[in-house]
Design goal:
Elements: E1 2-8, H1 13-25, E2 29-36, H2 42-49, E3 53-56, H3 65-77, E4 83-86, H4 95-101, E5 105-109, H5 121-127, E6 132-139, E7 149-156, H6 163-186, E8 190-193, E9 196-199, E10 206-208
Parallel strand pairs: 1-2, 1-4, 2-3, 4-5, 7-10
Antiparallel strand pairs: 5-6, 6-7, 8-9
Helix pairs in contact: 1-6
This protein binds ligand NHR and glycinamide ribonucleotide (GAR).
Length: 209
C-alpha cells in the first residue's frame, strides 16, 4: 500500500480528484495526509471531513524559507510518504526539501511547460496570443517548473477567452491527467532516463481536449 501525501494552498479540487479516483479504481494506495501553508485552505477542511489527517503550517510564522521547509518536511515525514503530490501548492520549495523527496515529488502546473513557468500562466498565454494552452504533471526538481514531464493535456485558447474561462477549461483536464499520473507512479509504471519520463505500458502521455 503506497502512502500519498498531498500539499496544497487553496481549493483542493486536484486533491479531490486524486482521492476520489484512488477510491473508485481501488489503487493499492491511500492519501494518508494533506498539509497546507494556508491554514484557511478549503482543501484542508475537505480532507478532514473525509477522515484524512491534516496539518496547517502557516509559512508567515516561520523565520525563513528554510525554516518553513524543514518544518514541512518534518511534519509530512511523520506520515511516511512514498509519494508527495503538490496540488495547487503555492510556495517554492528549497533545495533541501526537494532533494530529500526527489523522484517521489510530483507537481501539476497549469501551462504547457516549458512555456510559462511561474505564476499567472493563463493570463500570460492569452496575452501572448497562444492558440493552445494546457497543463503539465512533472517531477519536481530544485529549478522551478523544470522537472521531467510525466503527462500533458492540451486545450484550445478560444477567441474571447479570459483568465477564468481558460482556467476552467484547463482545470477539467487537470482532473483527468493528475490522477492518471499518480496512479502510474503508484503502480511503478514510470521510468525517468536523461530527464525524459516514459510510461512503461506505452499509455499516451499527451491528452487533447
Ligand atoms: N518548488 C520547486 N523547487 N520546484 C518546483 O517545480 C515547484 C516548487 C514549488 C511549487 C508549484 C508551482 C507551479 O506549478 C511548485 C513547483 C509557487 C510559485 C511562486 O512563485 C511558483 C510556482 C509554483 C508555486 N510562489 C511564491 C513564493 O514566493 C508565492 C506566491 C503566493 O503565495 O501566491 O513562493 O506553478
Ligand atoms: C490548479 O489549476 C493548479 O494547476 C494550479 O492552481 C490550481 C489549484 O487548484 N497550480 C498552480 O498554479 C501552482 N503554482 P485546486 O486547489 O483546485 O487543485
Amino acid at each position: 500500500m503506497k502512502r500519498i501525501v498531498i500539499l496544497l494552498s487553496g481549493r483542493g479540487s486536484n486533491m479531490q480528484a486524486i482521492v476520489e479516483r484512488c477510491a473508485e479504481e481501488g489503487w493499492d494506495a491511500r492519501v494518508v495526509g494533506v498539509a497546507s501553508n494556508r491554514p484557511g485552505a478549503a482543501g484542508l477542511a475537505w480532507a478532514a471531513a473525509r477522515g484524512i489527517a491534516t496539518a496547517a503550517l502557516d509559512h508567515r510564522e516561520h523565520a525563513s524559507r528554510e525554516a518553513f521547509d524543514a518544518e514541512l518536511a518534518r511534519v509530512i515525514g511523520l506520515w511516511g510518504p512514498d509519494l508527495v503530490v503538490l496540488a495547487g501548492f503555492m510556495r517554492i520549495l528549497g533545495n533541501d526539501f526537494v532533494r530529500r523527496h526527489e523522484g517521489r515529488l510530483l507537481n501539476i502546473h497549469p501551462s504547457l511547460l516549458p512555456a510559462f513557468s511561474g505564476l499567472h500562466t493563463h493570463r500570460r498565454a492569452i496575452e501572448a496570443g497562444c492558440k493552445a494552452a494546457g497543463a503539465t504533471v512533472h517531477f519536481v526538481t530544485p529549478e522551478l517548473d523544470h522537472g521531467p514531464i510525466v503527462v500533458q493535456a492540451v486545450v484550445p485558447v478560444l477567441p474571447g477567452d479570459d483568465e477564468q474561462s481558460l482556467s476552467d477549461r484547463v482545470l477539467v483536464q487537470e482532473h483527468r491527467i493528475y490522477p492518471l499520473a499518480v496512479r502510474w507512479f503508484v503502480e511503478g509504471r514510470l521510468r525517468t532516463e536523461a530527464g525524459v519520463v516514459t510510461q512503461l505500458d506505452g499509455a499516451p502521455q499527451l491528452y487533447l481536449a
